[in-house]
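Write out the bound-state structure for magnesium ion.
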Amino acid sequence: MRIILFTGKGGVGKTTAAAGTAVRAARAGHRTLVLSTDGAHSLADAFALPIGPEPTPVSDLLYVQQVDPQRRFERSWVDIQGYLLAVLDAAGVDPITAEELTVIPGAEEVLALLELRTQALSGDWDVVVVDCAPTAETLRLLALPEALGWYMDRVFPAERRIVKALRPVLSRATGVPMPRDTVFDAVERLHRDLEEVHALLTGDTASVRLVLTPETVVVAEARRSLTTLSLFGYRVDGVVANRVFPTEGADPWRLQWTAAQAEVLDEIGQSFSGLPIWRSSYLPGEPVGVEALGSFAAAAYGHDDPLAAPTTDSPMTVTRTRTGATLRIALPFVATSDIDLARHGDELVVTVGSYRRLIALPAALGKHAVTGARIDHGALQVRFRADLEGHG
Ligand SMILES: Nc1ncnc2c1ncn2[C@@H]1O[C@H](COP(=O)(O)OP(=O)(O)OP(=O)(O)O)[C@@H](O)[C@H]1O
Ligand SMILES: [Mg+2]
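---
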């Protein structure tokens, strides 16, 4: 099953590109679902059809779903809050209250992405297209289960045992209700589910497409997104440059725009070299409805197969060397001085600006010592030497 996500700055055409790609996929004979995780009913607007919170058929083989996180998670919201609080606490975020939690940007969307897991595992679809929120924020949050791995593996079971043993005593003594087993179960289930979503979205058949418009500020943000997405293990396999002004028959006003856009398009080509850059023209009207969306995507992809398996390198690879191994993490646009690296036992902590990822090292590297790291050709290369314990 192929999963394709669309992300990019607000208003650049994510929903349009996602919907158009889904129309092409269905036309090519694939059972296709396009789902949106944002609260605004933008897919309904794009298709100009009423879309429900369950997959709604809109044409042959094409279903559209507007996930409603509130509806799906009303019952388990309390458990989820508990989990998120634990997550944030473990991540060192200042203690916050459960009320404040509801306004964490992206939290709802993360929950909505759980629906993606349900649909992906249902076996009903060949292609799932996801219309994501602006920026890579959500995808970053999805990496939290990984960051929390140590907590869930080591601290959490102990906590659970302690609470279980002390619950009768503590509840009586303090009057404070202690978490019940069902809460622990729910938290564990949620943790596992989120881990699965992350695994699905960083797997071999999943990829992310960046949607942008040829404007310098938009491109700057797309570059940052590419870095962040790579850091968190997502594979970007293409860029959609939307709203390109046609040069034909341009008046002086439009000519100024086409000249400015040409410069930025040039920069886009350099920034994202190695990735296909699909262009779509600024149309004389909104591409709304199955037909218009299909034409939008057909024009953008041209002869390219919109469902082609991603050929870009996996964001993280390990290669053996004579003395040990090299771990390579794609980190485009980053300089060695922008990176902070630390080793905590079996984990590597990579910090780039305000983003931090805890990477569980492959078992083979667990006993190796880090001997050096540098940025080379848009990737962080960390060198490991075998024999950390230096036996003999
Ligand atoms: N190439 C284009 N030519 C003309 N109109 C376009 C084009 N691409 C998108 N639009 C229109 O621009 C508006 C915004 O597009 P869209 O909803 O796809 O953006 P978005 O990135 O999903 O926005 P949001 O960040 O709000 O989710 C829509 O009305 C859409 O029909
Ligand atoms: Mg949208």
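---
The chain has a mean pLDDT of 82.
The first strand starts at residue 2 and ends at 7.
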